[in-house]
Each structure stands twice: as C-alpha cells, then as structure tokens.
Amino acid sequence: MYKLKTKASFDSAHFLKDYDGKCSNIHGHRWTVEIKVGAETLESDTQNRGMVVDFSNLKKDLKEIADHFDHSLIMETGSLQQATEDALLAENLRIVKVDFRPTAENFAKYIYDEMAGRGYKVIEASVYETPNNVASYCE
Ligand SMILES: Nc1nc2c(c(=O)[nH]1)N=C([C@H](O)[C@H](O)COP(=O)(O)OP(=O)(O)OP(=O)(O)O)CN2
Ligand SMILES: [Zn+2]
C-alpha cells in the first residue's frame, strides 16, 4: 500500500470545561494536524500519474481546515455563559464553537471526518497539542 502524510498548523486558544486542573483555564497551543492517506494503486491519468493524490490538493484541503481555527478561541458549545460569549463577541474576538470537548483526541476524529468527507481515503489523523503530546484517530 502507498501512504502519504502531510501536516498543517494553527495557533488557537481553548479550555477544557469541567477539567480539574490548569487546562480548565484559557490557554493556547500551536496545534499541528497530520493526515495520512493511502491507496493500493497509483493514479494513471496524465496529471496525477504515479500519485496517490496530488500533495498540492491534500495540503490545500488540510490547510483550509486548519485555517478555520487559526487565531481563535475554540470553545465547546455551551461551555461559557451566554453573557460571557456575547461579551467576547462584542469585543470582536474570534470564537469557533465545536460540538465536542476540544481535546486532541476529539480534534483527531474531527480532522479525520473532515478529510474523509472531502473524498480522501484517510488512514489516520493525528493532532499534536505540543511537540510531545499527540492523539490519533483511525478506523
Ligand atoms: N488525553 C488528553 N489529555 C489532555 C488533553 C488532551 O487533549 N487529551 N489536553 C490537555 C490540555 O489541553 C493541556 O494543554 C495539555 O496539558 P499538559 O500536558 O499538562 O500541558 P503542557 O504540555 O503544556 O505541559 P507542561 O507540564 O505545562 O509543560 C490536558 N490533558
Ligand atoms: Zn490545551
């Protein structure tokens, strides 16, 4: 089997609701997301001949997903009082709401699903919260 891997990064803040420890506070990470896609055979048409997929397209799609979160506060829906959320928005601060607790594990599945939804044969998606801490999702 052939496998391709590419990475993208974004900077954003998050916090873990109901977490007993420092991660319950708003803090930032340079998140790195890594996607691995595969194929048993290579493309044979002119443009993509000899490729699993064109790295340019793979990188562009992953970057689009990463850019959605860049320089934002990522928050789980319902994890702040409405008044707090409204006050942040009134200051023109960027909030991206997600319907999951924003852990590396949940982000890994989110990235997997997003890329699979764009038609890639995803083998694994990984999310680094720090260079040492990584979570992966595969099926
Ligand atoms: N399994 C998981 N555990 C934790 C996650 C996660 O996503 N999955 N996330 C956090 C926090 O977001 C936190 O930012 C990371 O915690 P921690 O390792 O304690 O922080 P640092 O890497 O910055 O470590 P230092 O010891 O401060 O250098 C917590 N756990
Ligand atoms: Zn964190």
From TrEMBL:
Cofactor section: Zn(2+)
SUPFAM superfamilies referenced in this protein's UniProt entry, alphabetically: Tetrahydrobiopterin biosynthesis enzymes-like
One Pfam family recorded for the sequence: PTPS
Molecular function via GO: 6-carboxytetrahydropterin synthase activity
EC number per UniProt: 4.-.-.-
Keyword Membrane carried by entry: no
Cofactor remark: Binds 1 zinc ion per subunit.
Alphabetically ordered keywords of this record: Lyase, Metal-binding, Queuosine biosynthesis, Zinc
Catalytic reaction(s) noted: 7,8-dihydroneopterin 3'-triphosphate + H2O = 6-carboxy-5,6,7,8-tetrahydropterin + triphosphate + acetaldehyde + 2 H(+)
Pathway the protein takes part in: Purine metabolism; 7-cyano-7-deazaguanine biosynthesis
Record-linked InterPro entries: 6-PTP_synth/QueD (IPR007115), 6-PTP_synth/QueD_sf (IPR038418)
Record has Phosphoprotein as a keyword: no
Domain of life: Bacteria
Listed NCBIfam families: queuosine_QueD (TIGR03367)
Family indicated by similarity: Belongs to the PTPS family. QueD subfamily.
Protein name: 6-carboxy-5,6,7,8-tetrahydropterin synthase
The species this protein was found in: Coprococcus aceti
